[in-house]
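#lab-general

N.A. 3:47 PM
ok so I finally got the sequence cleaned up, no stray characters, all 282 residues accounted for. can someone with queue access submit it? mine expired

B.Y. 3:52 PM
send it over

N.A. 3:53 PM
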Amino acid sequence: MCEVPKDAEARRAVAPVICYPNETLPSVDLGLYRQARGQAVKISEVYAAPREAACFEVKAGQFFRISSVEGSQVGDLNLWNAHNLSERFYSGKTRALHGTHITEGERMWSSLPYLRPMATIIKDTLNWYGMDSFGGSVHDVIGTRCDPYTGNLLSDVHYHQCCHSNLTRALADHLGCSLAEAEPHIHDVLNVFMCTGFTRDTGQYFMKASPVRPGDYLEFFAEIDLIGALSACPGGDCSSEHTSDAAACYPLLIEVFEAPAEALAAWRSPQENGYDRSHGHL
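B.Y. 4:20 PM
back already:
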């Protein structure tokens, strides 16, 4: 270990500065969204089976809900622009703008160069959980997704029911393309219902038993036309094992709702980011 400088404590005591103050983000009219949701009717549903994923489509101005229906279960969510798969959920920028975990009134932002809201969370039945004494909370944008490559690296196994593979199969089936064509579109996720954080001593990513119970849900307003894919993680509630055939796993329900057009007359779908993309080259 290197020699500790005499001013080490003073250096550690420097106050932090928020990297991206978010007070100037476009405002979220939760009142409008919730009023429209109250008039919406269900138009479709799909189940993500245990250790599998399912795709769904949502039009701009519609709502979608992810629910626990049979037992405590976490899910990995991907979102794409339905007309341009290169515009997809950007977990890193969402984390930078909102924090490590997201809840009501916060948004899932899209990748560069588009960088606009894809979906807004309008209801979270787990918003009571907050941040626990371990530094854990729910609905994280820090975990990447369980994948067969990391499993092979750490344990020399070939496990195919991990979320990365589940999402790959679901998207390939939805698009009618090969697995090789679908896989590059799979990206870092919103870990729905998962309870996670970073250890205080080593800074390692941890998980603990999810507080989700049947009847809990996370509900979104679609800001643009979306294709979504949700994997019911092979870790179940992630109380013991991250990827396994031993954990108790349950399905997740995705429902889509539509409100009358007049309920959202004052709303407009967000445009792509306004940066001119010149990058200083005139």
